[in-house]
Sequence to fold (328 residues):
Amino acid sequence: MEAQKENILEIKNLHTWFYTGNDIVKSVDGVDICLKRGTTLGIVGESGSGKSVTALSVMGLLTGTRGKIEKGSIYLEGEDIVRINEEKRRKLRGGKISMIFQEPMTSLNPIMTVGKQIVEGIMEHQQISRKEAKKKALEMMKKTGVPRAEHMMKEYPFQLSGGQRQRVMIAMAMVSNPGILIADEPTTALDVTIQAQILDLMNTLKKETESSILFITHDLGVVAEICDDVAVMYCGKVVESGDVRSIFFQPSHPYTKGLLASVPRLGEEIEELESIPGNVPNPRELPKGCKFAPRCALAVDKCREEEPDFFDLGNGHLSRCWQCGGQT
Fold:
């Protein structure tokens, strides 16, 4: 039996709220997530479920926005990084923990060559000469499969294709061997062939560097391919979590079941895919009780009045649903 892996990242009771005029938008409202060392955790859910805000909270990238971590803790290798100063956070960011964004054109500096951007990142976190940093940057560019890497080092972001830019972003994120890589929808804007190459590359680099990945996506096909564990989010909370096999073959929460039912499958001839009825509620006007109750065919009065806590289904499989707890 394989030994239980330790947690490299623990998010506990995280609340990240945004203040807009007289309104409070509770984007993340009590999230608990654990990322085991050397594994990939997929965070899935519809747009507006709080996936990206969770990632930005971990990275400390809420400065300059109206967002604020109201309460909760984020433990990185046992240290709570919620209240650390900006200087220490800057050293962590890109050093111990890195992030790949959905659209690299908004993350890369348009007036700086990609090679220089990688070199600057290396020198920020490693005490080496510029010559050594250039050599390291070139090695990582080659490792990420950037064609004609030496030539591409001198190019600007707009001169590269979408797939090439994403490879550059991965090179920047991985060059300092971070313990954790956060990937926020990194393949959404790419065609399926390039997407498969990027996913394969991330898997390979994870194994080579023994890093852990927090993979944010709405694509359950991607989750099935590269993730070890899954956390399903809805309205700022995790509603179900467990290993990938439990989530895919024994889903418990009605929302998880709805997401899985809406995925097309090879070999099946159906005229119309299933969909989850209704819409995600307005974050300013969240319903009482279970937030999914207005869209759930199984909801009863208790679901509409009381919000369920997690029920342990065994083997680390948790579900936030009164039905699976047998208490409706």
